[in-house]
Specification:
GO terms for molecular function: 4-hydroxy-tetrahydrodipicolinate synthase activity. This protein is of the alpha/beta class. The chain is about 45% helix and about 10% strand. The protein has a single domain, classed as TIM Barrel (Alpha-Beta Barrel).
């Protein structure tokens, strides 16, 4: 039985346009309801789209706790707790577990170069500190390090390490993770929305898809078609993820995704500074993308 499966939405963190760009809890509740109504299998707070890197530990725990309360057991809620520091990753993982998280997603240390043995030690320390499942998170373009399949295979031996999310976009890497996880109770998830079908074919058990903040039903329908073996429908849905991806590439993550949600009536506000507001030119393209999906907008 998979611990992590289906379409998991790495929800954006809503901010107000006040001086401190404080978290907007009301908008958070609205987004939670929208995601669940779209048929998602899980919600993930404070991933890359959740801007974990510009939020304080207290903000992360308090907002995650709020999301967990609002979800009220309808789907699992996973919380991003990784850090450059093992001490902080351990502390955050314990706090997320206390807040009621179903699992923690743990990015490997970033900014500095650490050895494979050091990465393994980091994951061991985090996994030993909690009883809930741990998901490794590989996003080399942001961390500077690709978790090697060998590291994944060794970390996967730890009892409560139950999955790895691969956002490398490299299908050979994902295939090697599937191989590393074989025979272990460990799921492989894809984090590249343009490669969901390819990942499913290789044995991925689910997708953590940022685009599903906005087009939940499209991504959920894609996964359903893949699971049912309807390759024609799957190809059509996979192609239908491209218009939003084209727009997302026009700004820093998650600038344009948040603007799209905002124009669609979910007041998630801007990305936190230093990421700026979108330009009128980008807004025009965002509106055209919303028209493509038949999403009403301002």
């Amino acid at each position: 039985m998979s611990t992590f499966s289906g379409v998991i939405v790495p929800m954006v963190t809503p901010f107000r346009r006040d001086e401190g760009q404080t978290i907007n809890y009301e908008a958070g509740e609205q987004l939670v309801e929208r995601i669940i109504a779209g048929g998602a299998s899980g919600i993930f707070t404070f991933g890359s789209n959740g801007e974990f890197h510009v939020c304080t530990p207290d903000e992360k725990i308090e907002f995650s706790k709020f999301v967990i309360e609002k979800v009220a057991g309808r789907v699992p809620v996973y919380v991003g707790t990784g850090s450059c520091s093992t001490r902080e990753a351990v502390e955050m993982s314990k706090r997320a577990e206390d807040a009621g998280a179903s699992a923690v997603s743990v990015i490997n240390p970033y900014f500095m170069k650490v050895s494979d043995a050091e990465i393994e030690g980091y994951y061991e320390a985090v996994a030993e500190s909690v009883k809930i499942p741990v998901l490794m998170y590989n996003i080399p373009k942001s961390t500077g390090t690709n978790l090697s399949p060998e590291v994944v295979a060794r970390v996967a031996e730890i009892d409560n390490v139950k999955g790895v999310k691969d956002s490398s976009g490299n299908m050979e890497n994902l295939a090697a993770y599937v191989e590393a996880a074989r025979g272990k109770d460990v799921d492989v998830l894809v984090g590249s929305d343009g490669k969901i079908s390819a990942a499913h074919a290789l044995g991925a058990s689910g997708a953590i898809a940022g685009t599903a903040n906005l087009i939940t039903n499209v991504v959920v329908s894609l996964w359903r078609a893949l699971e049912e073996g309807d390759s024609e429908a799957a190809a059509s849905y996979q192609a239908d993820v491209e218009p939003i991806r084209d727009v997302l590439h026009m700004g820093s993550t998650p600038q344009t995704l948040k603007r799209a949600l905002e124009l669609a009536g979910v007041p998630v506000g801007p990305a936190r500074r230093p990421v700026a507001e979108t330009t009128p030119e980008v807004d025009e393209k965002v509106r055209a993308m919303l028209d493509h999906y038949g999403i009403a907008h301002e």
